[in-house]
Design goal:
- The complex is a heterodimer of chains A (162) and B (112).
- Helix content of chain A is 33%, strand content 25%.
- Chain A is an alpha+beta fold.
- In chain A, β2 and β3 form a beta hairpin.
- In chain A, α2 packs antiparallel against α3.
- The longest helix of chain A is centred in the middle third of the chain and has 22 residues.
- The two termini of chain A are 23 Å apart.
- In chain A, 31% of the residues are buried.
- Chain B has a single domain, classed as Transcription Regulator spoIIAA, CATH 3.30.750.
- In chain B, 30% of the residues lie in helices and 28% in strands.
- Chain B is built from three helices and seven strands.
- In chain B, a hairpin with a 2-residue loop joins β1 and β2.
- The chains are: A alpha+beta (162), B alpha/beta (112).
- The interface between A and B is medium-sized, with 30 and 27 residues.
- Chain B: This is STAS domain-containing protein.
- Chain A: InterPro entries: Anti-sigma-factor_SerPK, HATPase_C_sf, HATPase_dom.
Chain lengths: 162, 112
């Protein structure tokens, strides 16, 4: 992987696709918080010479929210299954496909993701519920479906190369 | 997770010595904050200069800290990195917290 990144760097512009060979990342891990963290580290390592820090932040945030949702909601605590991430760098976006084999999203639909209200007393402030709002804010072209027992979520994360 | 706390005048400054507050460490972060903030003065400033990533679980943990400090003590935040500031902005939680560009009264020195 390191040699690969070195070759890409020598080949010229950082922009994806400029060398003709797509930058791809594929990983399958157990749906656990630490495994999610390691997957995100590995993905950002794979992309580090091709994107800027703002893009890395967007990718890490969107995928962390999606993968944490799978850990917390698709599987039962202590009985985790697998999750899979396939990502491919395009000229202006990172295309992602996330699969898991847990329970489907409620109503088989991507949640609307409204922001919880902050106009409340301190003791009533939300301690969660921002995940889908963040995902919808940053990602584009979200599509969800079931393939047999598998949840499939596809999305694109726009990149600015800043 | 390593938290370094120091009393500075009327405030307790807590330097978060971790590069992320995420789902994998949110509970540990809350527990450690509870320990270091026990007996703190009325103002607690959390220095986030070393934290480059916060997800919604980490944000929820920071809100939980604010809630358990209240009403006697007030939590303020300082030195948010760009990607962390973005999460506070997108969730509108930047309206809820007092956020300082740097730890008050310490200039750019986070070295303790």
């Amino acid at each position: 992987m390191a040699a690969d990144a070195e070759l890409q760097r020598k080949a010229g512009p950082k922009q994806a696709g400029s060398t003709g060979r797509p930058i791809r990342f594929v990983a399958e891990v157990e749906a656990q918080p630490l495994a999610v963290r390691m997957l995100l580290y590995a993905l950002l390592k794979r992309l580090e010479h091709h994107i800027g820090p703002a893009d890395a932040g967007s990718i890490e945030l969107v995928l962390a929210e999606i993968l944490n949702n799978i850990v917390e909601h698709a599987y039962d605590e202590g009985r985790a299954g697998a999750l899979e991430v396939v990502a491919e760098l395009r000229p202006a976006a990172l295309d992602c496909c996330v699969r898991d084999w847990g329970r489907p999203l409620p109503d088989h639909a991507i949640p609307l993701g409204g922001l919880p209200s902050t106009a409340v007393a301190i003791e009533d402030l939300p301690e969660g519920g921002w995940g889908w709002a963040l995902i919808r804010d940053v990602a584009r072209d979200l599509r969800y479906g079931r393939e047999g027992e598998c949840n499939v979520l596809q999305l694109a994360i726009p990149l600015s190369f800043d | 997770m390593n938290l370094e706390a120091a009393v500075l005048g009327d405030m307790l400054v807590v330097h978060v010595d971790a590069d992320r507050i995420d789902a994998a460490c949110a509970i540990q972060f809350k527990d450690r904050m509870r320990e270091v903030a026990a007996g703190a003065p009325s103002r607690v400033v959390m220095d986030l200069a070393r934290v480059r990533f916060v997800d919604s679980s980490g944000l929820g943990a920071i809100v939980a800290v604010m809630k358990f400090l209240a009403p006697a003590r007030r939590l303020e935040l300082a030195a948010l990195t760009a990607n962390v500031a973005k999460v506070f902005h997108l969730t509108r939680m930047d309206n809820v917290f007092t956020i300082h560009a740097e730890v008050p009264g310490t200039g750019m020195d986070h070295g303790g």
